[in-house]
Amino acid sequence: MEFKFDELAFVMDCPATPLSHISSNEKMENKLIQVTIYITRACNLNCTHCYISAGRPLNNELNYYEWKNVIDQLKYMKIKIIYILGGEPLLRNDIFDIIKYSSSLGIYTAMSTNGTLINKTTAKKLKDTEINEVQVSIDGPNEEINSVLRGKGNFNLAINGVKNLVDENIKTTLSYVITDSNKDYIKDMVDLAIKLNVNSINFSPVQYFGRAKINKIRISRKYAIESYKLLKKLSEENKKIKITINGFRFYLDNLDEVYNSLIKKGLSNYYSCPAGRSRFIIDSNGDIYGCELLINRKFLEGNVRKNRIEDIWINGFKQFREDRWKKINYCSTCEISSLCQGGCVARAFNGENIYNKDPLCNFNVEHL
Fold first, then answer.
1. How many domains does the chain have?
2. How far apart are CA 156 and CA 115, in angstroms?
3. Pure H helices in the chain
4. Are residues 237 and 331 in the same domain?
5. CA distance linking residue 345 with residue 343, whole number of Å
6. Which of 6, 101, 106, 209 is paired with 230 by a 20 to 30 Å CA distance?
7. CA–CA distances in Å: residue 186 to residues 73, 77, 80, 194, 228
8. Whether 158 and 268 share a structural domain
9. Which 3 state secondary structure label does DSSP give 81?
């Protein structure tokens, strides 16, 4: 295959890292940069590809004062970025207070939303929190395409939400998850983003977890490659909007060239998987995991109600910090495995064993 990558790779090209488009010139070897907090699992939509299967809130979700304490601890740990997800964060009545508190401490605070609840009043409240960025998920350039994944009647609500955010001069980005059903509408989505006057649009391939796995929603390697090539072309030709691309790393053929080039320039995380090395997640009930794609008792590191977050960070995440690749048959003799570290732990565990190879790693199949 003629599929190459260049040095425009983003530092955290990880399927589960929401703010992949925030680049860094620091190597992230066990240096905490970003924490994602799942503020609630409650959601007003029922998206067929939701990797976390959001819908109902978890039992005993953290209250405002508990989240405030969490943010205080993260500030003490010198965290740079807090990313707030759900579910739908705007279903919480105290969400504005939580965002405002995080922002007031000088932490880059961003939120992901489906946008359907953002009327003019809500947009004004978000502006008053001094939030740094709001990302709105839209998976089609019109009602017909968007409804396949996100349900009927939500497209116009999300579009109006975006317009209200832009009217308040809030940094607004769009997120588009590419599947076999919407892969042909990438350019249309870029055109829509330009029309809406948002700051950027991020594209990523669907992840085969949660309801996406239940509903068998995928993107084939062929279509992922075609989508990536188109996106690179659009990003190079289009000067009207920033186009970011995330989660395509393991569709590449020249991983060795990419890693070596980026590492020499100090632009890449040495470790392929940032879980437990440069980021972790806090679930809505206070449970801490390395990655949202690995919310499983086998990967539970602790709970904020029982443990100091810094203690968990220092003493936990051993499964993520070990040289896992040395125990993977396919990786142990691969010439770049010390760089990619065996790929995505979550995709490997999707086969119920973290010592499986990453199913998207085409390199070790072709070269061993």
1. 2
2. 10
3. 64-76, 95-104, 120-128, 143-150, 155-167, 186-196, 210-214, 221-237, 255-264, 309-315, 318-321, 337-340, 345-349, 363-367
4. no
5. 6
6. 209
7. 40, 39, 31, 13, 10
8. yes
9. strand
User: Can you read off the two tokens belonging to residue 221?
Assistant: 């390697």
Q: Report yes or no on 110 lying in a domain.
A: yes
Q: State whether 62 and 83 are in the same domain.
A: yes
For residue 196, what pLDDT band results from cuts at 50, 70 and 90? very high
Distance CA 223, CA 229 (A): 10
pLDDT of residue 141: 98
**Structural domain includes residue 3:** no
User: How far is 313 from 307, CA to CA, in rounded Å?
Assistant: 10
Tokens of 233: 């072309």
Is there a contact between 317 and 176 (Cβ–Cβ < 8 Å)? no
As a whole number of angstroms, the longest Cα–Cα distance in the chain is: 58
Q: What's the alpha-carbon Rg for the chain, to the nearest Å?
A: 20
Give the structural domain span for 196.
34-321
- The reply to whether 328 and 271 lie within a common domain is no
Of 85, 87, 9, the closest CA to residue 279 belongs to 85
Whether 198 maps to a domain, the answer reads yes
Burial of residue 303, with CB atoms counted within 10 A of its CB: 0-12 exposed, 13-18 middle, 19 or more buried: middle
Domain membership flag for residue 120:
yes
Q: DSSP 3-state assignment of 309?
A: helix
Looking at the structure, tell me whether residues 184 and 55 fall in a common domain. yes
Strand partners, 242: 200
**Shared domain check, 359 and 211:** no
Tell me the two tokens of residue 51.
């990797």
Mean pLDDT of 181-188: 97
Percent of the chain with pLDDT over 90: 63
- Same domain, yes or no, for 286 and 337? no
Q: What is the pLDDT of residues 248-268, one digit of tens each?
A: 766 666 666 666 666 666 554
Is residue 230 within 8 Å of 72, Cβ to Cβ? no
CATH at 75: 3.20.20.70
pLDDT value, residue 260: 67
Domain boundary among 285, 303, 321: 321
Gap between the Cα atoms of 161 and 116, Å rounded: 6
